[in-house]
Amino acid sequence: MRAKQRRAGAVPIITARQAASLISNGDCVYFGGSSAGHAVPEAIIDALRDVHSERGAPEDLMVVGTVPIGDWLATGLGFNKLSAPGLVRRVVASGLSNCPGLGQLALANKIEAYTIPQGVLAQLARENAAGRPGVITKVGLHTFADPRISGCRQSECSKEDMVALVDIQGEEHLLYKTFPIQVAILRGSIADEKGNISLEDEAYVGESMSIAAAARRSGGIVIVQVKRVAASNTLNQREVRIPGVLVDYLVVDPDQRQTYATEYSPAYAGKMRVPDGAIEPLPLDVRKIIARRAALELTPGATVNIGYGISNGIAVVAAEEGIYRSVTLTAEQGVIGGIPAPGMDAGAGTNYDMIAPQPDQFDFYDGGGLDVAFLSSAEVDRHGNVNVSRFGTKIIGPGGFINISQGARKVVFSGTLTADGLSAKPDDGSLVIASEGTVKKWVKDVNQITFSGAYAKERQQDVVFITERAVFKLTPDGLMLTEVAPGISVEKDVLSNIEFDVVVSPDLKLMDARIFKNEPMNLAERFHDRVVQA
Q: What does the angle CA 97 – CA 360 – CA 178 come to, to the nearest 5 degrees?
């Protein structure tokens, strides 16, 4: 069944199982929502799993999600429920980290898998809605997204070229191609009888209207899950994000949660501001040590992105130190200002100035709107390349990492120097390595290039690497050690745990001892003396 011109009047309300039954074999199904349950139509995902289990159909689906959806458990929530054999033929998302059920199928070469930069996918929905051929951008050049390297592929059976290299006025760009969408499955807070959708209680806006319009342009159908239905013409018009003219069916789930971790937070919905004291400080551990050192890279008035993973702690440190109002913190899902949420709720925010539609947020990022980006690193190599997208037996994907790292004026990468067994403890102003990690993360060559050091140097980008025991800078001559933690041996604890040679700065400094003390750093006292880099 495909979209037809709908008569004026009420939009049909159907069950989640009826919605799943509208999906045909081979369909491209685009799910709205983000990460760990933010605006995710979970009831319809449940029904799709159940219908396929009972009937063996639909099958061979192309499943798309701008942001990967799941709870990091292979048999858990979100896309993890869609890992039954035969259900999915291809997955297209910005990552697979929180849906390892599909990631394992891709690793086993049982499904096609493409991990496309998150900003590109968000913008691609908009281009698709407008009938344009794709997104033309420099985002992804010289990374695994570049077709000269991998073309976003994460499994050998992924044969279609979803990305092409193009020349525009003598400069290289990438063309990420649009594709038809047969079914769009989205979520809102409240629908009225005409199908107008308000997202007023959601922690995430995304690109819902673009996805709906792209499906309509493809001749597909649009199904929206909501918590409740109101009478026609009773919604606040400014809170309507998907117009009823694009909606074919409604599914009502009165039990839908705001996120997987949070049933409902009025702060996430922008309906209240929380006092600063309500934001719980981080315990003094390796994560906080790194976040504290990274926070020293903040300058007054700077607009910054706080990435996922270990970098996410910077927002909490900024709040704890009372400086978060002096900078503009952002998260790629659309949060501007305030404090991006940590942990499972990352992508939401509190005390923000606005939540932008995701394509608009990435337009801002791609255009150089970020003064500093704080991102995590899983592997670093001798060329200054960074890998966060694939290592060991895990397909992670880039998320918004490629857009953010290539668009920001300055990039600060954070991560421990080693992994698996590392125990590092602060000791009243110094650091003690109680046990060393068995896995070296600074390797000769990264497994997959998510950030190109050579391309960064070509563009004269300022790049800093922060670990719990040392700080490095990317220079024209390679990586240079610039700071070391008090109590740490440069040779034994740092250089011997790196698989390649790094230059030791002749002006090597000690990391600030306040980082390693279990008391506030009092950053606010001298914060406004810092200078914003042009």
A: 65
